[in-house]
Structure formats: C-alpha cells, structure tokens
C-alpha cells in the first residue's frame, strides 16, 4: 500500500458504489431525481439542473451549454431540464457514498461538483471515453463494466479534488492535502481506539504541539481532539450497524466500557447506542419496502 495514499484508511470504511448507468430521455421535458447521490454525464445538448423542493437552496439553478460531468455526492432532490429541442445525450448513474454524518469525505465535498469535459485531466478523459464507448456498444457484461468504470471515474475525481485542495482550509479534504497533517489524520483514521495525545500527533506532523493545534484547526476546521471524537462516533455507528455489541464497539473505538460509550452517545446524539441501532434497523426495513 502506498504510504502517500490519502484515502487508503477511509475508502474501506466508505466504499464508493455506482449503480447501473442509463441514458436519460429528456425529449418529453424535465426529470426529477432524488433517491441517491448521482453522477450526470451531460455530453450533448444544453441542460439545466436545479434543486427541487427543500433542496432548491443548496442546489441553485445552473445551465451548461458545453459537455460537463456533474456529481451530486449526497442524495438531493433535483430536476434536469432540456434547454432546447436539439438532440440530447445525457447519462445518469446512481451513486452510493454512504450517509451524511457518517462519511467524513461525503460531508467535506460540495453539494455539487462540476467538471467541463474539455477540462478533464487526461486519466479522467480516457475513462470517460471508455464509459461512452461501453454505453453505446452494449457488449457482453456491459452493465457490470459500466458500474466499475464509473467508480474508477469518481475515484479519479476524488483524487483530482484533493489535488485542488492543496493550500486550502476548513475541511477534511484540505487536511488530507496538507503534508504535515496527512500522517496525523491517517493515524487517527487507522487507530481510533488509541489514546492519542497532542504530543504524539505533533511528533507525527513534525510540529510543536501549539503549531499542530493551530494548523489542524485552521486547515481541517476543528481541533485535533474534536476531530478524533467525531471520528470515533462515526466508526461506532458504522460498527453498530454491522451488528457488533455495544461493549465490542466501545473497545474498538477507544472507550473502556459500554457505559462510557453510552454516555458519549447520549451527550452527542441524544440517545443510547442500543436505541440508535434499533431505530436504524427500522429505517432500513422501511426504506427497503
């Protein structure tokens, strides 16, 4: 595993999964989509996308005349509208990147990311060409092939987004792009059960404790201790969903007892871990119906 892979500790916890790619027919007017994150490949014809209903404010109206890729990482009710009667080529893919509040990468991404086709990095352009060729060819196993190619495209996009965040501030992506903070974040992500001290984290960063605390808060957007606490809670919820007992989860995320984790859960989320898990199970059954 490459030591400089900024996503290696996160993607196994929050795998990015693409559903089947489909061509959207906008000849009869607009389409409203809402059930998952989406990737739209707007390859021919002017198209407008805007938020719909309660998502109208966070997805303001935007029009594109040139071919673009539009990624909505989190589920958002939105409308696609043709802006002319000329022939259209629009592909749509549902994308699952976990839930807001659980996946810190998802929470760090903008509500909408846009890349013009002419501005794509070479690797993304090559992947897109394969996607279009496969979509139009309808060859053997093309459904599975397209899903995997879309996942590759989105992982390339994440890498591109990280590269653009160098020197930025106020988000996890900026922190992962900071050479001093990257090993700190990687250590926290890999070992949430460890009782990390500020001195230990500072040694990983090659900074003084004061310099690390200031830099981490400025670049990531919160102090190191707060980020560690948030990460432990995210991991705890993931493990509870997987069926681990409260005591097992407490040990896995660095708390000495089920009672300690229960107190933290109640303080931060307003309910005990066991109750939270029961409610999540009910929601999953309802959404599956």
From TrEMBL:
Superkingdom field: Bacteria
Keyword flag Repeat: no
A GO MF term: DNA-binding transcription factor activity
Domain HTH araC/xylS-type: 182-279
Pfam families attached to this UniProt entry: Cupin_6, HTH_18
Keywords, alphabetical: DNA-binding, Transcription, Transcription regulation
Name this protein carries in UniProt: AraC family transcriptional regulator
Classification lineage: Bacteria, Pseudomonadati, Pseudomonadota, Betaproteobacteria, Burkholderiales
